[in-house]
Design brief:
about 260 residues, mainly beta, 4-stranded antiparallel β-sheet, 4 helices, 17 strands, globular
């Protein structure tokens, strides 16, 4: 009977100029002693520079994680990091095997980066970064090269489609989402820096708080002066916060729009 992967996620466990370690989490529809995850990442590639691409295979963890028999890791020595100027990207495949039978092969892409919001601004891969955000919120994937040529390194967007995510990752455009409801799957992408919650989010407060709990990127309130939930890094701290100044087109802590 064919088997398949029902959940797959790649997560950075350790990032440094010396070595990057990526954890690969997967669930299979059925598990047996012969169920195994194989695969590799190949890279880095970048449209703005020549690179030598190397294959980095999946490895077993030194110690198995409880309840995650298919968890694997990928180790990349001297990794190349993703930023708007040099969007280095790794691509590859993750395969599900039963003994010597291949049951499913999924294509994946992954980028390495760290983005930390501090009181003095945004640090991207340890370096200060000012966001220059495109004013148009209806962005098509074909517009990404033009926005980059105009000097924008970020864009506001509605819920992203896969083609926009791929173009932003490949060409180096940071995306800030504006979800209209707390439902749906949360896409994971190196290009997604954070999300802005709608101003009326408290009308669905319990749903939004569950949505907040699932986030792995910064989340901001949109013109809302209510207390900040504990444990959530906000882009906006209220009406006087840096992101509000950014939305007004002024030079703020994070950057400007337009």
């Amino acid at each position: 009977m064919p088997n398949r992967i029902v959940r797959l996620r790649l997560a950075d466990r350790r990032l440094s100029p010396v070595e990057a370690e990526i954890l690969v989490f997967a669930d299979a529809e059925t598990l047996s002693p012969e169920t195994e995850l194989r695969g590799r990442l190949i890279g880095p590639s970048c449209p703005y520079s020549s690179t030598i691409e190397v294959a980095y295979p999946l490895r077993k963890l030194p110690q198995a994680l409880p309840g995650m028999p298919l968890a694997r890791r990928i180790v990349i020595p001297e990794p190349s990091f993703w930023d708007p100027i040099s969007p280095f990207l790794y691509r590859g495949v993750i395969e599900l095997w039963e003994g010597e039978d291949l049951h499913e092969r999924l294509s994946v892409r992954h980028s390495l980066r760290s983005a930390v919001l501090r009181p003095d601004g945004l640090r991207w891969n340890g370096q200060r970064l000012t966001l220059n955000v495109a004013p148009d919120e209806e962005i098509e994937p074909a517009q990404v090269p033009e926005l980059k040529a105009q000097g924008f390194n970020a864009a506001l967007m509605n819920w992203p489609d896969p083609a926009l995510l791929e173009a932003a990752e490949r060409l180096g455009l940071i995306l800030i989402g504006k979800p209209t409801s707390p439902g749906g799957d949360i896409p994971e992408s190196a290009a997604i820096f954070g999300w802005l919650m709608p101003h009326d989010w408290r009308e669905q407060e319990s749903e939004w708080r569950e949505w907040l709990r699932r986030q792995r990127v910064p989340v901001g309130q949109y013109f809302d002066d209510h207390p900040i939930p504990e444990g959530v890094s906000f882009l906006i701290g209220g009406p006087e916060g840096p992101w509000l100044r950014l939305l007004q087109g002024e030079e703020g802590e994070l950057g400007r729009i337009g």
